[in-house]
């Protein structure tokens, strides 16, 4: 039907107040109303409950019902005033509801509408509100509308019409507000994302903003684990962000909001400010319109958002409308202590080909939670946080996995703050843990403990993770590394030897819940152990950078780890320099985060036999092939390429790595080996059977290498 026909019929029958929140299924009707009413007759409200209340006020003053329009998701906001204000058992005030029917059964729609579509009619039934589906044909609709108006006049009850997609003929808004701003919202979002750190977390509001964040991540080949894309619950994004910020004080939480959503539940601004959280950052992308549902205007242009936020209690507020202004304040906003708000005034509109998230919301939620829920403590003396963690988890009885002799030196430091807790130690496993040792532990250890702590090198952490994997009762795991190498505290895999074959368990369930990094635990480690673990860290970072599974995020982690290694590895191995220890522990942690995304490649694939057959420690074994493997990967061409992203992509990756390592990578590695006392010639290590090594390569890890390796290639990697 024509929106004009419905509008005129309503006006002729006494409906001269139109109010509500725009909806995409009603945008043609809403646009016509906007063009053909004055500001007294048509008010776009902050939320649907506001509209019901405004309609009630209109009736009290005029004896005439108002029309309230909304999407069916807005019923949630309107339930309270519909039941406690306008209902026949309270004030008996009639309203005519026009409800966009999203998520209708049998009609494909966005995931946030599916449940709402299933229960809309049931909600109306439960509330005692009579309803009909509005016919597309005006001739059929007219008698139904007149009957509804008569029903309302006689009973003083509310009546609802449900509107299906395509009910109205298209109508283009003529009086579309031109806000005069020049900034493009998607470009602004991309600029902000490029400034954020790896640990920063984003909660974005429903509509174009979340879709644009998703598209930007896709374009940059980044993951979506740092973003909670709020596909429904309009107006609640900042409260979601606040809930996260309260629990994750170790990372910044950014809320990306829109002006329509900001207005919808603006009271949350006061709550956000009241908590005084330094990690709460609020970005308001303001185009003064409900952009994704027809660009209907919001009332924001009449309000001073920054003054509202400042008076609500935000520490600092910014408002910008040009690129120069944004450039001038963005770094300050990011570094400021929250709660802080940045309003960016942007022009209306989005790309016509703007996509939507491909994954279901529940999948995005799990990816987000997996990334969010490892809590990190990284500082000197971090072990002292253990009592606080244990109390927060209501843990009294603690199972602690440790190394053998290596733990004795740090035991007093570990135990000094754990008085009052029952500690049971377990260390009956090898340096290279075996599956049968895990199964033995399961038989010997009962489940009368509340939490697991693993304190030691990569083998100890791997054993604890494997134990948790095999144990059917999931206890939380606190991982405390005492070496700067494996990064096992931040990975979801654990290495076990199964029937003599080095095997990797890979499962999200074994990612430690807490990572406690205290560089004091690295003091007095044997030089050779420090050298081996440091090389493992360097291998992780380099292999992650060129892995076929690398992402911009994993390469960012890897690049930071490489820079830390290059600046600190020699001092770390050859002395007890505290800054070097701290930096290498951070490098190991970052490299672990990198391989958790990308996995390792050829150097690790080849190293397993060197460890299992020749007992060469893991980090040492992994580093033996790294110099010549680097050269081999530099020789990438169309014939030996294995990365599906293409030859130019791999060449660029290797070029970036060369800038990080140096123009002569082999010289760098061999010089490094000499400086930290690592033998790298097979003849010096008593190994002469390269066929055995080449025949026993982990194929899964080998496939991650960007350049194909034949058996002869593998044999030629050794000196």
What does this molecule look like?
By secondary structure, the protein is α/β, with parallel strands linked by helices. It folds into four domains: 3-163, Thiamin diphosphate (ThDP)-binding fold, Pyr/PP domains (Rossmann fold, 3-Layer(aba) Sandwich); 185-360, Rossmann fold (3-Layer(aba) Sandwich), CATH 3.40.50; 374-525, Rossmann fold, CATH 3.40.50.1970; 527-719, Dehydroquinate synthase-like - alpha domain (Dehydroquinate synthase-like, alpha domain, Up-down Bundle), CATH 1.20.1090. The protein contains 30 helices and 22 strands. It has a six-stranded parallel sheet with strand order 2-1-3-4-6-5, with helices on both faces. Strands 8-7-9-10-14-13 form a six-stranded parallel sheet, sandwiched between helices. A six-stranded parallel sheet has the order 15-22-19-18-16-17, covered by helices on one side. β13, α13 (323-335) and β14 (340-345) form a beta-alpha-beta unit. α3 packs parallel to α4 (75-84), α18 crosses α19 (458-470) and α21 (552-574) packs antiparallel against α22 (578-598). The longest helix is centred in the last third of the chain and has 23 residues, at 552-574. The radius of gyration is 31 Å and the shape is elongated. The model has no long low-confidence stretch (mean pLDDT 92).
List the helices and strands and how they pair.
Layout: H1 3-12, E1 18-20, H2 27-35, E2 42-44, H3 48-62, E3 67-71, H4 75-84, E4 96-100, H5 111-127, E5 130-133, H6 138-155, E6 159-163, H7 185-195, E7 201-204, H8 208-219, E8 227-229, H9 237-247, E9 253-258, H10 259-264, H11 268-274, E10 280-286, E11 289-290, E12 296-297, H12 305-312, E13 316-320, H13 323-335, E14 340-345, H14 361-372, E15 375-378, H15 386-392, E16 397-402, H16 405-408, H17 411-415, E17 422-426, H18 435-444, E18 451-456, H19 458-470, E19 476-481, E20 493-498, E21 501-506, E22 514-517, H20 527-546, H21 552-574, H22 578-598, H23 602-614, H24 618-623, H25 626-634, H26 647-661, H27 665-676, H28 690-695, H29 699-703, H30 711-715
Parallel strand pairs: 1-2, 1-3, 3-4, 4-6, 5-6, 7-8, 7-9, 9-10, 10-14, 13-14, 15-22, 16-17, 16-18, 18-19, 19-22
Antiparallel strand pairs: 11-12, 20-21
């Amino acid at each position: 039907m024509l929106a004009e026909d419905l509008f005129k019929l309503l006006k002729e029958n006494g409906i001269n107040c139109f109010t509500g929140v725009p909806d995409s299924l009603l945008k043609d009707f809403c646009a016509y109303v906007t063009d053909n009413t004055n500001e007294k007759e048509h008010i776009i409200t902050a939320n649907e409950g506001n509209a019901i209340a405004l309609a009630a006020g209109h009736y009290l003053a005029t004896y005439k019902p108002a029309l309230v329009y909304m999407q069916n998701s807005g019923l949630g906001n309107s339930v309270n005033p519909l039941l406690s204000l306008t209902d026949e058992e309270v004030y008996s005030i009639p309203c005519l509801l026009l409800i966009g029917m999203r998520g209708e059964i049998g009609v494909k729609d966005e995931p946030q509408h599916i449940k709402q579509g299933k229960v809309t009619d049931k909600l109306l039934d439960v509330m005692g509100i009579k309803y009909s589906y509005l016919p597309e044909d005006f001739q059929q609709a007219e008698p139904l509308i007149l009957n509804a108006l008569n029903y309302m006049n006689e009973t003083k009850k509310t009546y609802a019409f449900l509107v299906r997609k395509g009910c109205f003929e298209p109508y283009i808004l003529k009086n579309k507000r031109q806000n005069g701003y020049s900034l493009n919202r998607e470009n602004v979002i991309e600029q902000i994302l490029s400034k954020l750190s790896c640990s920063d977390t984003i909660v974005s509001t429903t509509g174009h903003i979340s879709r644009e964040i998703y598209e930007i991540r896709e374009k940059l080949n980044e993951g979506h684990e740092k973003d909670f894309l709020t596909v429904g619950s309009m107006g609640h994004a900042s409260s979601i962000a606040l809930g996260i910020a309260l629990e994750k004080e170790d990372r910044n939480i950014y809320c990306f909001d829109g002006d329509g959503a900001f207005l919808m539940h603006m009271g949350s601004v006061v709550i956000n400010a009241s908590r005084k959280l330094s990690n709460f950052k609020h970005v308001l992308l303001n185009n003064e319109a409900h952009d994704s549902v027809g660009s209907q205007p919001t009332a924001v242009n009449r309000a001073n958002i920054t003054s509202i936020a400042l008076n609500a209690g935000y520490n600092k507020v910014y408002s910008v409308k040009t690129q120069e202004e944004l450039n001038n304040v963005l770094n300050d906003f990011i570094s400021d202590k929250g709660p802080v708000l940045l309003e960016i005034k942007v022009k209306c509109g989005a790309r016509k080909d703007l996509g939507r998230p491909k994954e279901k919301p529940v999948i995005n939620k799990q990816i987000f939670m997996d990334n969010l829920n490892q809590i990190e403590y990284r500082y000197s003396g971090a072990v002292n946080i253990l009592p606080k963690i244990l109390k927060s988890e209501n843990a009294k009885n603690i199972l602690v996995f440790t190394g053998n002799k290596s733990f004795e030196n740090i035991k007093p430091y570990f135990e000094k703050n754990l008085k009052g807790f029952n500690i049971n130690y377990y260390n009956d496993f090898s340096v290279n843990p075996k599956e049968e040792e895990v199964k033995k532990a399961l038989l010997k250890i009962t489940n009368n403990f509340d939490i697991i702590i693993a304190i030691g090198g990569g083998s100890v952490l791997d054993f604890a993770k494997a134990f948790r994997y095999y144990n059917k009762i999931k206890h939380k795991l606190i991982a405390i590394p005492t070496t700067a190498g494996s990064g096992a505290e931040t990975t979801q895999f654990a290495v076990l030897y199964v029937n003599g074959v080095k095997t990797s368990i890979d499962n999200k369930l074994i990612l430690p819940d807490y990572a406690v990094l205290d560089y004091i635990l690295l003091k007095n480690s044997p030089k050779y152990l420090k050298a081996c673990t440091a090389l493992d860290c360097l291998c992780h970072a380099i292999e992650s950078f060129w892995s076929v599974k690398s992402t911009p995020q994993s390469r960012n982690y890897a690049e930071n780890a490489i820079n830390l290694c290059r600046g600190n590895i020699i001092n770390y191995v050859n002395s007890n320099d505290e800054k070097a220890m701290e930096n290498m522990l951070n490098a190991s942690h970052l490299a672990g985060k990198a391989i958790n995304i990308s996995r390792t490649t050829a150097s690790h694939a080849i190293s397993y036999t060197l460890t299992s057959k020749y007992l060469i420690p893991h980090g040492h074994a992994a580093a033996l092939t790294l110099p010549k493997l680097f050269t081999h990967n530099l020789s990438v061409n169309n014939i030996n390429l294995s990365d599906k992203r293409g030859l130019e992509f791999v060449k660029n990756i290797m070029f970036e790595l060369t800038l990080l390592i140096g123009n002569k990578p082999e010289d760098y590695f061999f010089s490094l080996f000499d400086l930290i006392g690592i033998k790298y010639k097979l003849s010096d290590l008593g190994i002469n059977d390269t066929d055995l090594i080449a025949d026993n390569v982990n194929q899964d890890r080998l496939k991650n290498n960007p350049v194909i390796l034949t058996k002869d290639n593998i044999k030629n990697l050794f000196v």
